[in-house]
Amino acid sequence: QVRLVESGGGLVQAGGSLRLSCAASGSIFSINGMAWYRQAPGKQRELVADITSGGTSNYADSVKGRFTISRDNAKNTVYLQMNSLKPEDTAVYYCNAYIISWRRGDYWGQGTQVTVSS
User: Fold this and answer.
1) Residues 6+ apart with CB under 8 A from 46
2) Strand 10-13, strand 112-117: pairing
3) Which of 9, 66, 81, 82 is deepest in the core (most CB within 10 A)?
4) What confidence tens digit (pLDDT) does each residue in 66-97 have?
5) 64 CB contacts (<8 Å, ≥6 apart)?
6) Beta strands 67-72 and 77-82: pairing type?
7) Residue 79 exposed, middle or buried by CB count within 10 Å (0-12, 13-18, 19+)
8) What was the pLDDT predicted at 118?
9) How far is Cα of residue 25 from the mean position of the Cα atoms in its chain?
10) What span, in angstroms and rounded, lies between the C-alpha atoms of 55 and 89?
């Protein structure tokens, strides 16, 4: 069974930094794209950043220049380095990956809370 487990969320003051990690485990043949999404209270889930297996990344306009997505293919892990955090970054952050396993498709982590105080 494939699982995605996030870590690294927490409470930080505005201007601070956090690093999220998401590790995939289980019977994995390969992983294509990996991504981070977030969902703030009362809002729809939105894409924050994604990265291909080759390392090409893409960012939401709201986080460009502040967040950096990276991955370690040997560890089946994706990271999100978040700098210059703002109160509007407060949300539950979810890891997503398209995984080739016995079941091919999108997998989601359980989410990790990020709270930025002003």
Assistant:
1) 37, 38, 39, 60
2) parallel
3) 82
4) 999 999 999 999 999 999 999 999 999 999 99
5) none
6) antiparallel
7) buried
8) 94
9) 16
10) 24
